[in-house]
Predict the structure of Flagellar hook-associated protein 2.
Amino acid sequence: MFSIDGIVSGFDTTSIIESLLGFQQTQIDTFNSRKAEVTTKQTTFKGIEAQLVTLQSSLSRLNRATNSVFDARTGSSTNEDVVTATAGSGAIAANYQISVEQLASAHQIASQGFSSTSEQIATGDITFKVGDRAEQTITINESNNTLKGFVNTINEQVKDLNASVIFDQAAGSHRILLSSKHTGAANTISVSSAQDPLTGVLPDFSGPAVQPPLNAIVKLGSGIGAISAEYDSNTVDGLIENVTLELNKAAPGEVINIDIETDTESAKEAVQGFVDNFNAIIEFIDTQSQYNPETEVANPLLGDRSASTIKNKLLTIVSESVPGSGLARLSEIGIDLDLKGKLAIDSAKLDQALKGELDDVDAGEIRNLFGLNGASTSSGVRFLGGTARTQPSETPYEVDITQAAEQALVTATNAAAASIVVDGSNDSFEITVDSIVSETLTLNHGTYTTEELADHLQSVINSSSTLGVHQVEVSVGSDNRLSITTEAYGSAANVSSLNGTAASILGFDGTENDAGQDVAGRFLVGGVEEIAKGTGRILTGDPDNENTADLRVEVTLTAAQVAAGSEAELTITQGVTGRLNDYIRSVLDADTGLLKTVNETFESRIASIDASIEKVEALTESKREYLIAEFTALESIINELQTTGNFISTQLTSLGNFSGNNKK
């Protein structure tokens, strides 16, 4: 800052100027105070936004239509040393009695004895095969032609086997032990050798098995009609629907109780998380809207209409009834607003409701009280889900299917023989499934009936590492022609180009091809059509539909079950947390949301205040420059006056001296 303090006059010019500009500075201070208030409110609304996002995240577990937390089940076993149980979503709550008669085991075979681990092994190729899996060949040469080298090569290159060197104490010799990585009676190990016996010892695995390959045997029930089932693994799926059994130990004849129950703890945890997060945002808005009469301090949101709107809407949603649902209000299962406007849980009542022990409350209806859900009148049309654009139905929506989804199916051009010999001349092929070309696949050598060959062909295709999850089913028609059907449905499913040396014995000439069809249909709302698009078995409402936008249903009907008119009626309900989710999404919307509008208002006010501050600062600076100029001019005048005065004084002094001299 330019200063002229005391140059001539000795005045504190800077203080005088700042005092004269005090009004403008007061204006600037007032504007900055207003800006701080607006910024504080803006920051507080960011806090509301963060609380809403947290609440929204806790709603997802309650809103799921499939794999809902309310469908979760737990499994328990009275003897977990023998068997443990894990229940999947939707498993039927019941008690089952089982006994583990036998565990599945892996095939183990051993070679003849060797005098030392460094004994020389014959060079050449040796091939291993486990069950129906592809053959794997290793080559023995001078770099690996010892017991240890042989074993290491197997472990490095053969994916279906483990190999080790063991010491047979009784015989005093070392032996090579081969262990299948796959349990079950079908997973036997076979070894074939093309090694040169003149170059070393040929490993011989033709002796009796060290451990036979066995299937697990599980008995369901303890009565005369008990069901016995065999599995190639000690992980058993399918005996009890949606329940996985892990077999740990065989205990023939020991009856073990498996209890499948509703997982009320997971449901309560999800409900508690929702309630806690809901209460947190209500408390946040309440706290930020308070006035302290003792300190006379008002918190940032006192009297703010936008904050009140958000709070009141949240409270309204959780207290409203849910039309179309067997349960109308959260209070029916023990969740209600208390006197402070927060949700409170009656834990005992909620427990009873989830377990189906509460009068007039169907546990199966509870999830309808929360998220978006749908109930269909047809088992062939299943509700999968929707989005915020999917509207609850005042009257049921009709589902009109015009085309059932189809798998891809190819049938061999020629019939296969009743008895087929597979050898090195006709054992390989490639096939394209779902637009993926397999690697070269190999059939096991042997003599097959047509049915046996179909089963084996299916196993080989489904074991392809390239095709992976793209599975098929192979069957034999009455005309002895093989047919290959994809597991997948829809236009993305296809089968083609089975060719190779095995094609002719299978009846294929390589020209056979087919693609599946997507489901096709529409939704009818009060008789008015709304567009739907099919992908595989899934029918999805067009995003622009007024009522059924994004509505997804799975259609498992066959072509024979599709007729003129609607195949099902679908009742869609929007529960409490589903509505909350929709409202929060609308508030947070980046283009049209309330918080965006509020933030834009804050930004506009801050920009306006900044502009006002800039104007006052510019005016202040202009006045300061003017005053500095004026005071500079004043100092100049005073300086001139002082100079003139000094001159006159000097002259007067000179005149006095002159007069005195003349008198002498």
About this structure: The first strand starts at residue 73 and ends at 77.
